[in-house]
TrEMBL record:
Belongs to the universal stress protein A family. Residues 1-145 form the UspA domain. It comes from Sulfitobacter noctilucicola. PANTHER family: STRESS RESPONSE PROTEIN NHAX, UNIVERSAL STRESS PROTEIN UP12. This is Nucleotide-binding universal stress UspA family protein. Pfam families: Usp. It comes from the Bacteria. InterPro entries: Rossmann-like_a/b/a_fold, Universal_stress_UspA, UspA. Gene3D superfamilies: HUPs.
């Protein structure tokens, strides 16, 4: 049923839980997981220890720092996969609008399911469901699962 699963990550606790759910479902259905993280300055600040919604410094992180923080997000999810002994996993780290890039990847690999955290690092931009997750759920051509 779920042979191609996309798991959207932002470094939050909910996205780590989404990764675990994705690996569990892929193991159950004999599927593959593609992890995707679309890095931004706010994500980089969070990954290096800032409080969600606040900037760690007056200046924005450099492109290299954003890339490094993005890779850390992917590496944390890959560690979860290794702990679960799940090996059919790949990663993507495009740049752009998160929802657009996630939906594009899902279309490219003919995903059966997109999994994301219900709310991630978007702060108070959305009261119940994160704005990226809302857009994914509204525009996806496949099933979506929002992890709480």
């Amino acid at each position: 049923m779920f042979r191609q699963i996309v798991v959207a990550l932002d470094g939050s606790k909910k996205s780590k839980k989404a990764a675990r759910v994705g690996f569990d479902l892929a193991k159950f259905y004999g599927g593959a997981v593609t992890l995707i993280h679309v890095p931004h300055a706010e994500t980089a600040a969070f990954v290096v220890g800032a409080v969600s919604g606040y900037h760690a410094a007056i200046t924005k992180p450099t492109f290299a720092e954003i890339e490094e923080a993005g890779q850390k997000v992917l590496d944390e999810a890959l560690k979860i996969a290794a702990d679960l002994k799940f090996t059919d996993v790949s990663t993507q780290m495009p740049h752009g609008d998160a929802a657009t890039e996630i939906l594009l990847l899902a279309d490219q690999i003919n995903a059966d399911l997109i999994i994301s955290g219900r709310r991630g690092l978007s702060g108070i931009s959305s009261l119940v469901l994160g704005s990226t997750t809302q857009r994914i759920n509204h525009l996806a051509k496949c099933a979506c699962l929002s992890v709480v």
